[in-house]
Structure formats: C-alpha cells, structure tokens
C-alpha cells in the first residue's frame, strides 16, 4: 500500500463504544490511529487487538488516540472490548461505509470461495 501524505480525511460519522459518536472532525488537530480489522473474537483479530492494547501507553505518550474499526455491531464490540480489557474504543461500521471510504474492503478467497472481506489496515491521521 502506498503511503499517502496530506490526503483529506473522508467525511464519516460512526458510533463507537463508550457512547461516542466519531466523525472526521471530532479529533481535528489530534493524532488518530484507525486500525481496521475483520471480526471481533477471531484468533487473528484478538491477537491484533491485544497488541494495540499492550502498546496503548506508547500511543498515549505519543499523543495519539486509537480506534479499532470493524463491521461488527455495538453489542459485539462492547463484549470484545470488555473481554480483552481494551483501553480504547471500537467503532461499529455495520454498513461498511468507513471500510469502503478507506479502501479496506478487498476480494479474498475463503474456503475456496471468493468473498469480500476487510483487509487489516492501519491509518495514522
């Protein structure tokens, strides 16, 4: 993936755990890390979330706010966040709007079938 500098952030509005509403303007002037992942409670996504959790203090020290983003609903996110004791919020992109805006929906082959899925991707804003 090519690194894109000074590209405007797409307009979006999404709900996150903790009752937050996150938009493209809620964190203007701040460092934001958006990491997109396929699904709560799967082995790879659990490992990825734990790695962000374990490095969270380093992100805070650098002045960054971290958000995980997937297509899961808020109930799933709340349970996943609680189970893993994640110190950051998760955005529920149930309609895949953010996933498409950020270009993380890709064709994949799963069990021999072509499916559209989320490619693990991290954006520094």
Structure, explained:
The chain has 125 residues and is of the alpha/beta class. It has a single domain, classed as Glutaredoxin, CATH 3.40.30.10. 27% of the residues lie in helices and 33% in strands. It has 4 helices and 8 strands, in the order E-E-E-H-H-E-H-E-H-E-E-E. A 6-stranded mixed beta sheet has the order 2-1-5-4-3-8. Strands 6-7 form a two-stranded antiparallel ribbon. Strand 4 (64-70), helix 3 and strand 5 (89-92) form a beta-alpha-beta unit. The model has no long low-confidence stretch (mean pLDDT 92).
Question: What would you say about this model in short?
Answer:
The protein is built from four helices and eight strands. It has helices spanning 43-54, 56-61, 74-84, 97-101; strands spanning 13-16, 20-23, 31-36, 64-70, 89-92, 105-110, 113-118, 121-124.
């Amino acid at each position: 993936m090519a690194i894109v500098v000074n590209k405007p952030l797409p307009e979006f509005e999404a709900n996150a755990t903790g009752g937050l509403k996150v938009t493209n303007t809620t964190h203007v002037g701040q460092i934001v890390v958006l990491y997109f992942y396929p699904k709560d409670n799967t082995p790879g996504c659990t490992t990825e979330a734990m790695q962000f959790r374990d490095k969270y203090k380093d992100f805070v020290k650098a002045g960054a706010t971290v958000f995980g983003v997937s297509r899961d609903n808020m109930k799933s996110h709340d349970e996943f966040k609680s189970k893993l004791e994640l110190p950051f919020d998760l955005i529920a992109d149930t309609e895949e709007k953010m996933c498409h805006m950020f270009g993380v929906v890709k064709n994949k082959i799963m069990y021999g079938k072509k499916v559209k899925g989320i490619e693990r991707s991290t954006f520094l804003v």
